[in-house]
Design a protein that fits this description.
The N and C termini lie far apart (77 Å). A hairpin with a 5-residue loop joins strand 2 and strand 3. It is built from 11 helices and 13 strands. The strands form 5 sheets. It has a 5-stranded antiparallel β-sheet with strand order 1-2-3-5-4, sandwiched between helices. Helix 5 runs antiparallel to helix 7. By secondary structure, the protein is an alpha+beta fold.
Length: 371
């Protein structure tokens, strides 16, 4: 009887202790989960604060116009400078883009990606609040003959390297596998030290599991930066972003804008023109005259070479971003020879004649077949 009583008492103590331990552990787990969620979700900023920060979205505070609405400079109550993206009221796609951008950016942390500070969904407004980039976007410097002089050789290499690292993070190193789908000079912002930060994730898509590519019946992106398989067939993958990166490399090296290139030159695109001169052994003619006194000709040719490899017509012939980063870092890596690039063999179609610099959203295509 005594033994039974002692054993029963011990068992009761053990059960009670286990129950208390589980209860405390569960409470700690819930608290930890709440803290993690609160850290990941960007704070909501009330509309009154944003109106005050941007002077009621005054024209004097306007930084630019994007595909889904204007962007304004603002200053919050704590003195922090911000950029506020205001989505257009009438755009249904804009609402989808807004939700997409918030959900994506809140999970991304990299020094070469623009940081989302908060958002607002009061009344009919949909607003995203970003860190302010004082040097605007890459296209502002790159395609202005006077401002481009500030982009010396070292800065251009740093910008290319930063863009590459940012894309690599999206493709391989973040918690998600993300295809940006709208890489272009105007979506690369520059901080105080001219370091690049990729922005505008409204058209981005998440790949899950072992997915390698996907089809869409609506084309979104910017003419001149779209990979051919995406523009013509609606097929996109990480290699679509590699194509956009290749176009950026060629633009940064030459100082020439790819969009509308065919209007003033005898080639359908910048990449076609670059491949033509490369094939003829005249690639140094591509060099931005502002770089002649500061860059090494062999290094310039190597970057043109890498750019051409990234804009190959067949997606399988393009390197991954991890390979591209290795090529940029290691001069001893042997590069394969680029073949004819996209749209250099008579496949230049009418919908590339627009010369638009803006993102295109919802261009329908038909006869999409599975692969």
């Amino acid at each position: 009887m005594v033994i039974l009583a002692v054993v029963s008492a011990c068992l009761a103590i053990v059960l009670l202790g286990s129950f208390i331990f589980c209860l405390v552990t569960r409470k700690k787990a819930k608290k930890w989960k709440r803290e993690i969620v609160s850290q990941q979700e960007p704070p909501r900023i009330d509309l009154a604060s944003i109106l005050a920060a941007t002077n009621n979205f005054s024209d004097s505070n306007k930084l630019g116009q994007g595909g889904f609405g204007p962007v304004f400079k603002g200053m919050l109550n704590d003195g922090k400078e911000v950029a506020v993206k205001r989505l257009s009221y009438c755009s249904e796609q804009g609402s989808e883009e807004f939700t997409n951008e918030v959900l994506l950016i809140m999970k991304l942390r990299h020094k070469n990606l623009v940081r989302l500070l908060g958002f607002c969904t009061e009344r009919e407004e949909k607003l995203l609040v970003y860190e302010f980039m004082p040097n605007s976007s890459l296209d502002v410097f790159l395609f202005d003959p006077r401002k481009r002089a500030q982009l010396n050789w070292t800065r251009r290499l740093n910008i290319i390297s930063g863009i590459a690292r940012g894309i690599l993070y999206l493709h391989e190193d973040s918690q998600l596998r993300i295809i940006h789908r709208d890489l272009k000079a105007s979506n690369v912002l520059l901080d105080y030290d001219m370091n690049p930060k990729i922005s505008d994730f409204g058209m981005a898509r998440i790949f899950t599991g072992s997915e390698g590519e996907a089809n869409t019946a609506k084309i979104v992106g910017t003419y001149g930066y779209m990979a051919p398989e995406y523009a013509m067939e609606g097929l996109y993958s990480i290699k679509s972003d590699v194509f956009g990166f290749g176009v950026l490399v060629l633009e940064i090296m030459t100082g020439k804008r790819n969009t509308g290139f065919h209007r003033s030159n005898r080639a359908p695109s910048l990449q076609a023109y670059a491949w033509q001169l490369w094939h003829e052994g005249k690639a140094l003619e591509l060099m931005d005259p502002l770089l002649i006194d500061s860059c090494d000709p062999d290094e310039f040719l190597r970057y043109i070479h890498i750019g051409l490899l990234c804009v190959q017509e067949n997606a399988n012939d393009r390197p991954t971003m991890s390979s591209a980063v290795v090529m940029l870092k290691n001069e001893t890596v042997t590069l394969s020879q680029p073949q004819r690039v996209a749209f250099s063999v008579g496949r230049f179609t009418d919908h590339y004649e627009t010369g638009s610099h803006d993102s295109v959203n919802g261009l329908s295509i038909s006869d999409i077949g599975p692969r």
